[in-house]
Amino acid sequence: MNMFGPDDDPRIDPDGELWVRPYTVTNGRTRPSTALDLVSLVRATGRGMVAPERLGLEHAQALQLCHSPTSVAEIAHQLEDTMTESDEMNPAMVEQLVLRQGLDVDVTFCPERILEGRAMIELYELPQIVAARTDRARDRATALFGRLTDDVVYLEPEEAELAKLFTNTWRYIKFATANQLYMMANEQGLDFDRIRRGLAEDYPRAADMPAAGFAAGPCLFKDTMQLAAFNHNNFPLGHAAMAVNEGLPLYLVHRLEQRFDLGSMTVGILGMAFKGGSDDIRSSLSYKLKRILAFKADEVLCTDPYVTVDPGLLPLEEVLQRSDLLVVGAPHPEYRGLAVDKPAADIWDVLGSGVRV
Q1: Average pLDDT in the 55-59 region?
Q2: How far is the C-alpha of 156 from the C-alpha of 1, rounded, in Å?
Q3: In sequence order, which residues have a C-beta less than 8 Å from that of residue 313 and are 6 or more positions away?
Q4: What distance in Å separates the CA atoms of residue 355 and residue 148, rounded to the nearest whole number?
Q5: Structural domains of the chain in order of their starting residue, each with its CATH number
Q6: How far apart are CA 282 and CA 219, in angstroms?
Q7: How buried is residue 27: exposed, middle or buried, by Cβ count under 10 Å (0-12/13-18/19+)?
Q8: What are the residues facing 267 on neighbouring strands?
Q9: pTM given for the model
């Protein structure tokens, strides 16, 4: 990859830390100087833009796999990742590839809109979008998804691609709006969730206002930034949503600094997955929270009842015992109503003590 070095790029601080997320730097895509495919061999050079200890867990794992020349396919397999057309290539790129190769295959674009953890329910309940250029391709895709649902929505491939991006971007912006309102209420010493429940009671036009919380995971941020790149980076609303959602961990730490002497405290983070009830840590803001606290607190301890890929996690009982201050990083059901005898920052109110920080 052709990249700037720490001495050349104003987006990197003296310690080699990116001031902005890679998706912002690359407009949603990295552009390798050498063509890569599944059989390409890659190797870590040790000249990265970010210090290894500051990488997210999933990125650090990928870097470790590249200590010697390794194929892209092997890295994907080791990470248990799946390279799919919907995530890696838009419909036009797939069609051009098929045309250049002279292949007689049907190309359809059928984006999935399933909420993680609800696949076996929503596969049957949700309508399936099907997009294709030819009747044969459309009919074959309809027959496949007809085994799961009777509701099929037909769009053109470009419309289907935007439908997928619009769906995740709409959700990401809604979460950002709630998070911004949460910060405004919190600055006034008020409980945002109490206000939210009050204004939504028997008032249907406010029923869809979400609670505050970390908006992360493998799709929401990525698709919002991909939509911005698609529109020539002219998406101020999407960039504002990114600033709010990605800035929430830093806001929480800032508020905690105003109340506590973090430098003398051990802080425990409850939940490292990107959402409650999940073991998925991809793009989890809990790890961003951990990195920020590592600079501010004396020690940071982490626990999660579902995550198994992070060897640094500790049992819940040990984190509760050793911590001076707790922060809920993911609203796992195991934490609901958990009795704690020390201060806690809980923007989801899973502990039942309110969301003010």
Answers
A1: 63
A2: 34
A3: 272, 302, 303, 304, 307
A4: 40
A5: 1-83 (no CATH), 85-155 (3.40.50.720), 168-345 (3.40.50.720)
A6: 9
A7: middle
A8: 300, 325
A9: 0.75
Model pLDDT, residue 100: 79
Of 286, 265, 266, nearest in space to 331 by CA? 286
Neighbours of 268 (CB within 10 A): 29
Strand-by-strand arrangement of the 128-132 sheet: 108-109, 128-132, 152-155
Q: How far apart are the first and last CA of the chain?
A: 42
3-class secondary-structure state, position 111: coil
Question: For the residues 234-252, what does the mean pLDDT come to?
Answer: 95
The two three-digit tokens of residue 131, written as one number? 């997009």
CA distance 290 to 293: 5
Confidence of residue 182 (pLDDT cuts 50, 70, 90): very high
pLDDT number for residue 52: 54
Distances (CA, A) of 201 to 180, 195, 204, 207: 21, 10, 8, 8
Residues in Cβ contact with 48 at an 8 Å cutoff, skipping those fewer than 6 apart: 16, 63
Residue type at 313 in one-letter notation: L
Where does the pLDDT of residue 66 fall: very low under 50, low under 70, confident under 90, or very high at 90 and above? confident
Report the distance separating Cα 164 and Cα 89, nearest Å: 13
Helix or strand run (H / E) with residue 343: none
Amino acid (1-letter code) at residue 174? K
CA distance 26 to 24: 6
Distance (Å, whole) CA 149 – CA 207: 28
| Cα separation, 222 vs 72, whole angstroms | 21
